[in-house]
TrEMBL record:
Species the sequence originates in: Phainopepla nitens (Phainopepla)
InterPro entries linked: NAD(P)-bd_dom_sf (IPR036291), SDR_fam (IPR002347)
Spans traversing the lipid bilayer: 62-79, 191-212
Listed name of the protein: BDH protein
UniProt cross-references to PANTHER family, sorted A to Z: D-BETA-HYDROXYBUTYRATE DEHYDROGENASE, MITOCHONDRIAL (PTHR43313:SF43), SHORT-CHAIN DEHYDROGENASE/REDUCTASE FAMILY 9C (PTHR43313)
Alphabetical keyword list: Membrane, Transmembrane, Transmembrane helix
Lineage of the organism: Eukaryota, Metazoa, Chordata, Craniata, Vertebrata
Length: 214
C-alpha cells in the first residue's frame, strides 16, 4: 500500500472511525472500555503512524474526527473520554508536524446523531438486562428508564445536515490555510463548550446536573 502511494503522492488522511454508546460508568464492563479505546483512540493512532512517512514526504494533512463531547458529557462518558484523548494526541502531533509542513486539523461536530446513526436509541430493558447484580442493587428500573428517555431525547434532536461536517472536512483538506479546529455545532452547544472552557468546573457541573435532572 505505502509503495503504491509513494509513486503517485499522498495528500491527506482522515481519521473518521468511531463508535458510541450510552451508560453510566459502572454500567459498562471493562471489555467495552477497551473496545472503545481501541477503535476511537488507538485506531486513529495506528492509521496515523502507518501513513506518517508519506505525510511528511508530501507535506500532507491529517484530519481527526473529534466532538464537542470532548469538553463535557451527558450520559456517554465513555465516548467523551476517547474524544478528549484524541484531542490531546492531535495537539501534540500538530506541534510536532509543523517542521515538516504537515498540518493537523480537528473536526468537532455537535449532535449529528440523526445524520450518522453512530448511536442507536437504547431501551431501558436492554440496559437493565446487561447490568451486573451489583449495579442492579444500586439503581432501579425507573432510574434507568429516566436516563434512557433523556439520552434518547438528545439523539432525536440531532441535526440531519451531515453535509456541514463533510464541508468542514473538505475545507481542512483543501484550504490554503486550514483551521486547527473546526467546531460544527449549534449555538447552544457552542455555549456549553464556552462555559466548560472558561468557567470554574463547579459552574459546568451545576449546568450539566440541572440538564440531567430535567
Amino acid at each position: 500500500l505505502l509503495s503504491h502511494f509513494s509513486s503517485i503522492g499522498f495528500w491527506g488522511l482522515v481519521n473518521n472511525a468511531g463508535i458510541s454508546t450510552f451508560g453510566e460508568t459502572g454500567w459498562l464492563p471493562m471489555e467495552t472500555y477497551e473496545k472503545f479505546a481501541d477503535v476511537n483512540l488507538l485506531g486513529s493512532i495506528r492509521t496515523t503512524l502507518a501513513f506518517l512517512p508519506l505525510l511528511r514526504k508530501y507535506k500532507g494533512r491529517i484530519v481527526f474526527m473529534s466532538s464537542i463531547i470532548a469538553y463535557f458529557t451527558l450520559g456517554n462518558g465513555i465516548y467523551s473520554m476517547t474524544k478528549a484523548a484524541i484531542e490531546k494526541f492531535c495537539d501534540a502531533l500538530r506541534l510536532e508536524m509543523k517542521k515538516f509542513g504537515v498540518q493537523v486539523c480537528i473536526i468537532q461536530p455537535g449532535n449529528y446523531a440523526r445524520s450518522t446513526k453512530i448511536q442507536p436509541p437504547l431501551s431501558a430493558e436492554e440496559i437493565w438486562s446487561e447490568l451486573s447484580e451489583e449495579e442492579k442493587a444500586v439503581y432501579n428500573k425507573e432510574y434507568v428508564q429516566e436516563r434512557a428517555n433523556f439520552f434518547n431525547s438528545i439523539l432525536s434532536e440531532g441535526s440531519t445536515n451531515g453535509n456541514e461536517v463533510v464541508d468542514a472536512m473538505v475545507d481542512a483538506l483543501t484550504s490554503p490555510a486550514p483551521k486547527a479546529r473546526y467546531m460544527v455545532a449549534k449555538l447552544k452547544e457552542k455555549a456549553l463548550v464556552f462555559v466548560c472552557a472558561l468557567f470554574p468546573t463547579v459552574v459546568m457541573d451545576s449546568v450539566l446536573s440541572y440538564a440531567l435532572s430535567k
